[in-house]
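FAQ: What does the model actually see?

It sees only this:
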Amino acid sequence: MEILKKAEKYNYADNRFVPKFNYQSQDNPNLIKIRKELKLDSIAGNGNELSKIFNLMHWVHNLIRHDGSSDNPTLKNAIDLIKVCKKENRGVNCRMLATILNECYLSLGIQSRYITCMPRETKFDDCHVINMVYSKELNKWIWIDPTFDAYVMDEKGNLLGIQEVRERLIKGQTLVLNADANWNREQLQTKEGYLETYMAKNLYRLQTPLKSAYDTETWKSGQEITYVELLPLDGIEQAPQKKEETYTETNVKFTIYKTNNPDLFWTKPE
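And it is asked to produce this:
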């Protein structure tokens, strides 16, 4: 918490170039396949948008167990990840759970991104990946965590987004974790443990893919992946603002843009 409090300041005037975020259409053939094969319409149900968002989160959480020490499967899309977990009776890490849920949301026309939540250090042993999901009903982003089946509210029961949770943690304002938040249906989570300790460490800096789409985590030769990272002014590595690197083993090119402006990072879908 003390480290996070020092990271409160951003620069809302930072206008260095960051490309526009985009979200794959639910009409994409791969997303249509996910929607049909996984029977997501029946899982999401016939309720309002928020009930669909929560039904899908609960389903992914209950379907696949979290195993933070597991190796990632080769194919990292919703259908193949679920198949390999069933076949090998295994779990996956938080990044893969958020990837599965993200593709499920996109297949139903719900715009979302997965967010890598990281500590201050540039080299670390632990981070956490959750989803930011845009609710048209609420006209805002909301915090969705399939690993812990978790979402966060204020004292009035209003759903909060990642930026709001971060701000309220720093200012010591009231945060309410859903009572049934849990790890693998074995261990209930508390606000103190999950938010004030674990996520306080991991909300220092945030990174997300520029394009939210099917199969972005499967590294194929010739693929180009762009990420955007939101850094506080207290951040260690502020430069370069744009970094490009191609991994020779996979022939995948990674580009990372950095910004100190939360408004650019949390921009609403068009």
